[in-house]
Write a structure and sequence with these properties.
With 192 residues, the chain is mainly alpha-helical. The protein has one domain (4-187): Four Helix Bundle (Hemerythrin (Met), subunit A). It has helices at 9-29, 34-38, 48-76, 87-97, 119-140, 162-187, and strands at 149-151, 159-161. It has a two-stranded antiparallel ribbon. A hairpin with a 7-residue loop joins strand 1 and strand 2 (159-161). The longest helix is centred in the first third of the chain and has 29 residues, at 48-76. It is elongated and about 50 Å long.
């Protein structure tokens, strides 16, 4: 059951953010070579490919968790119209992710980009992940996202309500796309 026609303004805003991320990645990768995609400007700073590989790793692990939570919320009858608060932990998690970063946060081991693959494959996975996030938001329409809780795939100790989890993931994408744009700029790749 899709809630696409019943999306609250809050969910519709998140939906637009995930959709816009695909356009932002198009601009980010325009005119970039495979070598530039893999280049680190400093040893401790990720390449553009690693930034996108990290976002793909996070999406691969989070999406089943979100989808399961949405399904369980429907089964339990957790319906509501919002707006949905994030709670203290959710607010803090989103705030810490917003770009530009105020300090470095190490990525948990499951989210580390290992071999992110060729540019085309990474972009294809990124685009498919955005579509899956949008579908999850559509499915979440009409649910009380404050009542539905999800645990981080990296640590069961970190639990957010579904509204905060979606907002966290959107902020997390903004952070790493901002980071990737800084790498592109440092590499001197002109905009097309």
């Amino acid at each position: 059951m899709s809630g696409e026609d019943t999306l609250s303004p809050q969910l519709e805003g998140l939906r637009r953010e995930f959709q816009a991320a695909g356009h932002n990645v198009e601009e980010l990768l325009a005119g970039m070579t495979e070598e530039e995609f893999r280049t680190r400007i400093r040893p401790e700073q990720w390449s553009v490919g690693e930034c996108l590989g990290h976002l793909n790793a996070v999406a691969r692990l989070y999406q089943p968790v979100l989808e399961r939570a949405i399904e369980e919320g429907r089964e339990k009858g957790y319906f509501g119209t919002g707006p949905f608060g994030h709670g203290v932990m959710g607010w803090l998690s989103v705030r810490l992710m917003e770009p530009p970063p105020r300090f470095r946060l190490p990525a948990p081991r499951p989210f580390q980009p290992v071999d992110h693959g060729p540019l085309r494959e990474v972009k294809r996975e990124f685009d498919q992940s955005r579509e899956r996030f949008v579908a999850a938001l559509d499915d979440a329409g009409g649910l009380d996202l404050s009542r539905i809780k999800v645990a981080s795939p990296a640590s069961a100790l970190v639990r957010l309500n579904l509204a905060a989890a979606f907002a966290f993931l959107a902020a997390h994408e903004r952070r790493h796309l901002w980071q990737a744009r800084q790498v592109r700029r440092a590499l001197g790749i002109s905009s097309s």
